[in-house]
Automatic annotation (TrEMBL):
InterPro entries: MFS (IPR011701), MFS_dom (IPR020846), MFS_trans_sf (IPR036259), Sugar_transporter_CS (IPR005829). PANTHER family: CARBOXYLIC ACID TRANSPORTER PROTEIN HOMOLOG (PTHR23508). This is MFS transporter. It comes from the Bacteria. Its main location: membrane. The lineage of its organism: Bacteria, Pseudomonadati, Pseudomonadota, Betaproteobacteria, Burkholderiales. One of its GO terms (cellular component) is plasma membrane.
């Protein structure tokens, strides 16, 4: 009988190269987040068409946006708690299936009330899927490249949002607004069945005391013939969280300040993101351009994040992650403020929106990575998902509040300068978190030396 070894699962993953099996998990998680991005922003490009077909105003459509975002918040917060209890894989499969079915059903909505209910239910599935895809990927990725890999997964949201804008510009004029919901439902429906190939997180399996042979099977797929069923698999948990529930971990003394800063940061970024993706097509159309122009310009905002997200991830791995993301927020705020001065020319406007999105979407896309690294395994899915869930309140403010701001009759210069302020607040909150963590580490170092 071979000698039993004690293997720390996280060290095992950190020491191995990024395998083909982990690439497969990456592809699944990327596609999940992309489908999430497509469905999340699907309403923005459809606003003018829905207003025309149903004979309603922007204000009358506001409950549809609000319901979807409330659903996202509930799904994010509930999905994280469920994933920390039952597993990332199970919650992912159920949530993707759920939002695909209700997205398909949205194509048959006959008015605001039906659409409001269906988008609420779709939002619940979307919220649970996003946070758990990020969590699962972070727990399969070596520490040395985690920010780059998880940031790239979150860029799937950018790809989905970008695709939604361009699909709307092509599909809606030819096939009507219903066609976009068909695409937004059928793609994730097919994905939900393929996801049965996804494995559970080995870190979760260890924490939940799964059979050793199941953990060994997954680890051997990462690095063939590296472990046996006789090995004992462990994971190191901080003493402050051992035995605590996931919720009590993220609100514990060690993590509370960082939790609040993460919430503020992503909340502020969501105000900007959802204002742009919800109302930019209408603003552009009102400025004298076509509906197709509005959908394409809206799509440029998340598209810019494809470039910036990978770059920010690199700087997060190599340098201080808080400073890297804060700098992206500040630069994004500058260009957000400049958008209001670009409506005289479509090329200038497109460039400003793209660059603003490059910085702002990159910062937003890096936040789940930062949160996943901040929380321990027992509270990771809950920590990430509650940050995403609370931030949806910012989404509501950006989407529903956008209609109020635009109704005030302010010049576009003033509107976008005001919109830049949340970006500055996000950067400040992030620097506070980084400073607090540095002080904690210094204090721990002094206590260790004294002992």
């Amino acid at each position: 009988m071979s000698e039993q070894r004690q293997i720390d699962v996280q060290n095992f993953i950190d020491e191995k190269s990024f395998s083909g099996y982990q690439i497969l998990i990456f592809i699944f998680c990327f596609l999940i987040v992309a489908a999430d991005g497509l469905d999340t922003v699907i309403l923005g490009p459809l606003v003018p068409a829905l207003m025309h077909d149903w004979g309603v105003t922007r204000m009358e459509l506001a409950p549809v946006f609000t319901a979807a975002l409330i659903g996202l918040a509930i799904g994010s917060m509930g999905g994280g708690i469920l994933a920390d209890k039952f597993g990332r894989r199970k919650v992912l499969i159920v949530s993707v299936f759920m939002f695909s079915i209700f997205s398909l059903a949205s194509a048959f909505a006959g008015g605001v009330v039906e659409m409001t209910l269906l988008r609420f239910l779709t939002g619940i599935g979307l919220g649970a899927a996003m946070s758990n895809a990020v969590t699962l990927m972070s727990e399969y990725t070596p520490q040395r490249i985690r920010s780059r890999i998880v940031n790239t997964v979150f860029m799937g949201f950018v790809v989905g949002a970008w695709a939604g804008g361009y699909l709307a510009a092509w599909l809606v004029p030819h096939f009507g607004w219903h066609s976009l919901f068909y695409v937004g439902g059928l793609v994730p429906l097919a994905l939900s069945f393929a996801m049965f190939l996804l494995p559970e997180s080995p870190r979760f399996m260890v924490v939940q005391n799964w059979p050793q042979k199941k953990i060994a099977r997954v680890l051997n797929k990462i690095s063939p013939n590296s472990v046996t069923v006789n090995d004992k698999f462990t994971i190191v948990l901080p003493p402050q969280v051992d035995g605590k529930s996931a919720l009590s971990v993220i609100f514990s003394e060690k993590y509370l300040f960082g939790t609040i800063c993460l919430w503020i940061t992503l909340f502020m970024g969501m105000v900007i993101f959802y204002f742009v993706t919800s109302w930019m097509p209408v603003i552009v159309k009102d400025a004298g351009f076509t509906l197709a122009d509005g959908a394409k310009i809206m799509a440029l905002y998340p598209l810019g994040g494809l470039i910036g997200g990978i770059v920010v991830g690199y700087f997060m791995d190599k340098f201080n992650p808080h400073k890297a993301i804060a700098a992206s927020y500040l630069l994004g705020a500058i260009f957000i403020g400049a958008i209001g001065f670009g409506f005289h020319d479509l090329t200038v406007l497109s460039s400003l929106v793209f660059v603003a999105g490059m910085f702002m979407s990159s910062a937003q896309g890096s936040m789940p990575t930062l949160a996943a690294a901040f929380y321990p395994t027992v509270g990771r899915a809950t920590g990430v998902s509650w940050m995403l869930g609370i931030s949806r309140l910012g989404s509501i403010l950006g989407a529903a509040g956008g209609s109020l701001v635009l109704g005030l009759g302010l010049s576009l210069n003033v509107v976008f300068i005001l919109l830049a302020i949340p970006g500055v607040i996000a950067a400040i909150a992030l620097m506070f978190k980084g400073g607090h963590m540095h002080r904690q580490q210094e204090l721990l170092k002094q206590q260790t030396q004294a002992a």
